[in-house]
Amino acid sequence: MMNLSDPAISVRDLRVSRGGVEVLHGLAFDVPRGQVTGLLGPSGCGKTTLMRAIVGVQVVGGGEVRVLGEPAGSAGLRRRIGYSTQSPAVYRDLTVLENLRYFGAVLGAPKDDPERVLTEVGLAGAAHQLGSTLSGGQLGRAGLAVALLGRPELLVLDEPTVGLDPVLRQELWTLFHRLAEGGTTILVSSHVMDEAARCERLIVLRQGEILADDTPGGLRAHTRTTDLEEAFLRLIEERAAA
Ligand SMILES: Nc1ncnc2c1ncn2[C@@H]1O[C@H](COP(=O)(O)OP(=O)(O)OP(=O)(O)O)[C@@H](O)[C@H]1O
């Protein structure tokens, strides 16, 4: 049995190779429940690979990944995790609403869930548009809507705010915090450090290693700067000096 105080995600000595090259070099960290944890780091540092390992679709070379008390990839976790990727799988010849009804049925989500999630991601106005006609930002939100179907306990969101205007970005962050207040655990990646301030906890990755695992406040205090972009640079300098 799992305790509510147990971490939602627990990673130990995780090693992953892609295309014959090791891209995650023995990561270890926990993600607390009911919080928004940001996975931050530059393009190519391994964020997507790490998320794939957590949702159980990545072959791992070593180590342990436990999610909601079970080994990553367990069949029982399928409906408990919502995952949105950077290239959302949305059928182009179905409308947004038809897509959500289809995925909702596959997941066994409540009948009115498609309408609920459409409103939550601000896509109700595009409900009857075909997948093929969506803009990049709309497509991303459609993928996010799919991830919200069935109210999963854990949301793993790969760069969900890329390409969105500031108003929409703000709305999505408000949604993430509202979901977290309701007990949902959220792991969200971003390559822009200004989004770090919106997270309750941060895991900063660089070249397949963890540079920091802290709160935004802790990171600012440790690096003696209020600017998280600057904090990132100081962490790199610190690592180089060590
Ligand atoms: N199929 C693959 N074959 C070989 N190398 C790969 C493959 N997929 C990813 N990589 C490499 O693994 C590393 C980590 O990639 P990953 O997609 O996890 O990074 P990321 O931090 O998510 O980047 P981005 O923010 O640009 O999406 C990169 O160096 C990438 O080039």
UniProtKB/TrEMBL annotation:
Keywords attached to this entry: ATP-binding, Nucleotide-binding
GO MF terms, alphabetically ordered: ATP binding
Species this chain originates from: Microbispora maris
Pfam families the record matches: ABC_tran (PF00005)
InterPro entries, A to Z: AAA+_ATPase, ABC_transporter-like_ATP-bd, P-loop_NTPase
Recorded superkingdom: Bacteria
Ranges of residues in domain ABC transporter: 9-232
Protein name: ABC transporter ATP-binding protein
